[in-house]
């Protein structure tokens, strides 16, 4: 049983020695930054993740820290993102997921806090206008609500608006509950089919959209099966038994524990409604800084909460 | 001063004798149905409304009536709409307006109650599947929030999804406060530039989208200037004076009364938050019936509130 | 390690043979009804639940069934509740929990759908008025938001309003994930200290409020530790080992698996936002029927969604 | 016809020369502060407002100004409020109005942003704890939703919690549309029966609650009749006619213009949903500063958005 994760760094952990994968870890301002580059087709297959760059920012205590400390993480997001952005042209932020499902609402919450400027070029004061990069943003909703694939809608909009790149925001599923709300993954590989909390069916990539797609994701849930599997794994390892020899038995047990008639069970912090708001704010601050490098942090705070 | 109205029947009232306009009034089930057809370019200019059919359904007491009586109006909406729909092909419902502004949220509220079926063709049971018409729905949001023109986004999506027609839902501004929440206008002319509560800037018409556009609108506000003007008009008429001779003076007075620094003042019922929900439900019921003629009313109620 | 449950029937299951506990199981209309009566102080201690009646209604498939079938469960709720209500006097419905936390919002969602009539005695038409029982409703919020204990606020309001009984609605934590959203517990023992999804600290009982308190609860989460424990228990039992001999080791493992910095992890269906709305509607329908026995089901539907 | 206003300064304007009323006007930081004291029973009757202090803060451009400028108004609110607070004891903030009606939601929105500390005395760190004043907050909802008078509920809660004073927040109706969202009235006379956007029926005063009641209100609407009346008044005055001689005729005209079947029509800015959020934030900032004088502005910002 392959337990699902949307985090490249967790895939890497599961598959320690693979050629074609480089990774390095930096530490600054209390944030751990893990850079993973998947370089070959072979590594792609081994990790189940496409070739490209994956930057993971971790800050375990971030959600209990002060607003000032959270701004630190926002700045790290901004910096990591800046290296992946095209130098010129309008940018489109796409918030994925279902606004009506708390753990899947991260994308649409970030879109609500974005500093949207693309339509402002003609109206703002000239000095400010000269410093704005054009940004538009949309949260298209999920298939069950619209009757349309997200990818289909985004393709149509991208063809009209022709941004230089798309930045897609999504809630992820992780392998380790300690990752929930504490880890940000930024990648230039776009959104893969089947990823995300809500199992969005199709991908959003350079291949499908015709423009570079940068994806930013934060784990909001782990699947309940993970918790059961972890408990069993620890028990076996304490007993000196190898997990690999008991895989089938474990899968059977996990199935019996987590099967319900209610759809998949997810494990999530009790306070997830509040946490998703805080994480959305960190990401929006980070995005606004990266997308508007000629505005000061103060100007961004002012404009993003007061409108232009 | 031209006081703005989005209702063709109000335009017609202002301009009684124009050739090229035909209208007739029916009455059934407590509903007054006014059909206006604007046939010539001359009539188009005189009324400030494009050539086409306008069906207006009025039911003054509808909002205080029982759920059963409201279903009567939903059936009238369904019937009027049915005559304008193409016989085959998928349909796309587009909810216009700003979800975050109560009086402008009608379109997105209707979208939330639509029976969305386009993605269901492969999964439902065969008998039911055979009776479903493909419907998709989207509420793209307004320019100030997305940085993109609604028309731009809808064009892009329509080009991908290729529906047989678009049905656009919008909150309107009327001339007469008695029209608020009691009148439904259905037209095959689409959405005109500058119409709607929120002054959406561009139109959604067959010309811009390449497919027929049916627009459904309900007045949610009148502009405050209307109230001032009405009071003055009555006073003049009571005094035996002709309104037309005092236009300029009146405009000056109205300006002094209604000019504030807060943007346009609108007149709206105090209970507008609740009313918009009721009207949205009537429209969604009417649309679901017209769009799914091979489902019974019971099936529609069941499916639209429980999901498929 | 005592895994927490708010369901008396789960406590009973854990402690099979206790004198002073009677229980019987009925089956009707697809609903399983378990009646547990805790009669002695000894049984109270053994089960960790106060003396009184506990009626548990289970309908595993209820959330996937039709609206008509859901009305069946609402009728069962109504019937069970009717037997516990005082024959005369106004009733107060209290929705517990935190409106801003999805899994804890059940109480406040039910309050929103209640047919509130206490203030209507003077204004409705005489015939209808004669058939209405006075009902008021409040969702006071949680300590962290108000700075006041829920019990403190409810006490103050009850002393002013002097209802004949209080009916408290709460989201529960269960021991078995199969109970989530499929089980309704109704008891005349009130709300116990420390129960509920959000660990409300004080109780709401006849002792604290001075009037009978009927509590209605539905499990919305199980704690993540439960999933880990279940997996381990199954493994041990498959290996022919007794769970009781390995308790300490299991507790250690569970702790290592479920400890995070984010507060307690809960296991919940991915679609909990939608499910809480459906459950709230079933409870509100059941309550409205029990509290207004002289109204027909049609009148209740009409009045509760259209206002009086 | 007495056109209704909840602002004492507007009552004063209508009745220029009354003994027993003193008023003075200050100007600082772009804010106009009008202090009205109603000292005698005679003045009370003439103005239709009870004896006491009324401080009105006006800043016409406030809503278009920067966040920094809005903080200026928050500081003025804090200063005016500080002079009316009892020196010791816990304080209770009561948000009046209907959360589900945008123009009436101000009170409950302010409550959501309050720094609530009463329950924190035992848990915070000692140094911070020593500097906190105990504050609790509640938004009890309106009669039509709860079946209970707001005054009844607040009385009950006050008797349990025994705060040193109540601070009640309410949305007001004004006489002049220029006052909407630009004027804050602070008074030590409490909430008067019949005031507020939603016509709350009973008062909240020292007489009814047994503790001092400070009321803070901001106009969110004017009634549509006001706009009609203003237009007529201007017309008459331009024509050299005295308004007083045509009162009856005017009332008849206004009635014909503004009478609809939808309940009272109100005039409100089209962007009222957004404006109510901005005003709520200004008031919450001002209240938090006044209620926690030993915290710095930075600490208040941090604590009120991150929790304690």
Notes on the protein architecture:
- Four copies of one chain form a homotetramer.
- Chain A has 308 residues and is α/β, with parallel strands linked by helices.
- Helices cover 38% and strands 20% of the residues of chain A.
- Chain A contains twelve helices and nine strands.
- Chain A has helices at 8-14, 41-47, 67-82, 106-112, 126-129, 143-146, 150-161, 206-209, 224-238, 247-258, 272-291, 297-306; strands at residues 21-28, 31-38, 52-58, 91-95, 135-138, 165-174, 183-187, 213-223, 265-269.
- In chain A, strands 1, 2, 3, 4, 5, 6, 7, 8 and 9 form a nine-stranded mixed beta sheet that branches.
- In chain A, strand 1 and strand 2 form a beta hairpin.
- In chain A, helix 4 (106-112) crosses helix 11.
- Chain A starts with 7 loop residues before the first helix and ends with a helix.
- Chains in contact: A-B, A-C, A-D, B-C, B-D, C-D.
- At the A-C interface, helix 9, helix 10, strand 9 and helix 11 of A face helix 9, helix 10, strand 9 and helix 11 of C.
- Strand 9 of chain B pairs antiparallel with strand 9 (265-269) of chain D.
């Amino acid at each position: 049983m392959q337990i699902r994760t949307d985090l490249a760094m967790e895939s890497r952990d599961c598959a320690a020695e693979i050629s074609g994968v480089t990774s390095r870890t930096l530490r600054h301002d209390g944030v751990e930054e893990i850079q993973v580059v998947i370089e070959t087709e072979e590594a792609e297959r081994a990790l189940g993740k496409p070739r490209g760059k994956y930057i993971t920012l971790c800050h375990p205590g971030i959600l209990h820290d002060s607003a000032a400390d959270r701004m630190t993480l926002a700045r790290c997001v901004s910096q990591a993102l800046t290296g992946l952005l095209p130098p010129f042209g309008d940018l489109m932020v796409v918030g994925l997921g279902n606004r009506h499902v708390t753990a899947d609402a991260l994308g649409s919450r970030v879109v609500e806090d974005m500093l949207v400027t693309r339509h402002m070029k003609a109206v703002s004061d000239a000095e400010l206008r000269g410093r704005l990069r054009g940004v538009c943003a949309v949260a298209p909703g999920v298939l069950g609500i619209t009757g349309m694939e997200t990818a289909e809608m985004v393709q149509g909009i991208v063809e009209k608006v022709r941004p230089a790149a798309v930045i897609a925001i999504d809630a992820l599923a992780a392998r380790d509950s300690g990752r929930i709300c504490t880890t940000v993954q930024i990648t230039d590989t776009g959104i893969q089919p089947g990823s995300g909390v809500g199992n969005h069916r199709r991908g959003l990539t350079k291949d499908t959209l015709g423009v570079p797609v940068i994806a930013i994701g934060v784990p909001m849930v782990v699947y309940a099966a993970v918790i059961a599997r972890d408990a069993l794994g620890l028990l076996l390892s304490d007993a000196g038994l190898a997990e690999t020899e008991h895989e089938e038995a474990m899968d059977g047990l996990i199935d019996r524990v987590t099967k319900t008639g209610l759809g998949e069970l997810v494990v999530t912090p009790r306070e997830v409604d509040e946490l998703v708001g805080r994480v959305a704010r960190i990401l929006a601050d980070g995005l606004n800084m990266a997308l508007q490098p000629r505005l000061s942090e103060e100007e961004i705070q002012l404009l993003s909460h007061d409108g232009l």
